[in-house]
Amino acid sequence: MNKKMTITSIKKAKGEKPLVMVTSYDALFAKLLAPYSDMILVGDSLNMSFAGKRDTLSTTLEQMIYHTSAVCQGAQNSFIICDMPFGTYTNKEDALKNAIKVFQETSADSIKIEGGEDKADIISYLCSNGVAVCGHIGLLPQAVRGEGGYKVKGKTEEEKLQLIKDARAVENAGAFCMVIEGVKAEVAAEVASCVSVPVIGIGAGKDVDGQVLVFSDMLGLFEEFTPKFVKKYMDGASLVKEAMLNYSNDVKTKEFPKEEHTY
User: Fold this and answer.
1) CATH number, domain 7-232, options 3.40.50.720, 3.40.50.300, 3.40.50.150, 3.20.20.60
2) Where are the domains of the chain?
3) What per-residue confidence (pLDDT) applies to 223?
4) Listed range (17-31, 45-59, 247-261) with the worst mean pLDDT
5) 117 is catalytic
6) Active-site annotation holder among 181, 190, 224, 259
């Protein structure tokens, strides 16, 4: 059993070893993924990969608490981060109330919120009240409707400078690490070098402090589309379909159950 990561050991990993983060939404997969990951993110991406919605915005706090509780049960020796869903941290008071609810009803080690300079005061308020915060800058999935789509960041000097400001603001507010998503690789590398806490990339190149992927993308289970930044480590959908076909055929031909499967 791997030793559980802590905020201290996560921060110390900066410049020492790349951090491995993966999403999970249930106890079954959390238990399978935990031995090979430093952190597990219970992402609001479950709204798309599990619920079939077109974006993450309709995810509720109750959903996140349910799935985070399940992941905590399956990966009791892992550092668990719960995504705060859209609309749950629009001001300091609501953010703290909702983060406390997550901490009281799950065993999550941290929450994650999207935003840079504009969310620094909220991050600071949460941290000053005992809530561990993982930041999220760059492409913000919860802003997809406001921005008119998923748009790669860091294409201009202005965007680069803003990303650096965002990262520094998130760090100064007290976040122990942050995700950087959908950012030009050379810009993400520069952003990571400007702060002393780990910067975990997704679609942000290799020269950051770690990587995170949605597990159903990584395992090839999600067929609707594959983002450019995803590497499929198995063709999970085909394997599941093949297994289901074999099961179906065995039932129809009465090859299953055999005597060894019968009481």
Assistant:
1) 3.20.20.60
2) 7-232, 235-263
3) 87
4) 45-59
5) no
6) 181
Positions at the binding site for Mg(2+) = 44, 83, 114
Which residues are annotated binding-site positions for 3-methyl-2-oxobutanoate?
A: 44-45, 83, 112
Closest CA to 30 of 74, 89, 78, 73: 74
Q: Which of 49-63, 202-216, 236-250 has the lowest mean pLDDT?
A: 49-63
Binding residues: 44-45, 83, 112, 114
Q: Is it the case that residue 225 has pLDDT exceeding 90?
A: no
- Judged against a pLDDT cut of 70, whether residue 24 lies above it is answered with yes
- Given a cut of 60, whether residue 1 has pLDDT beyond it is no
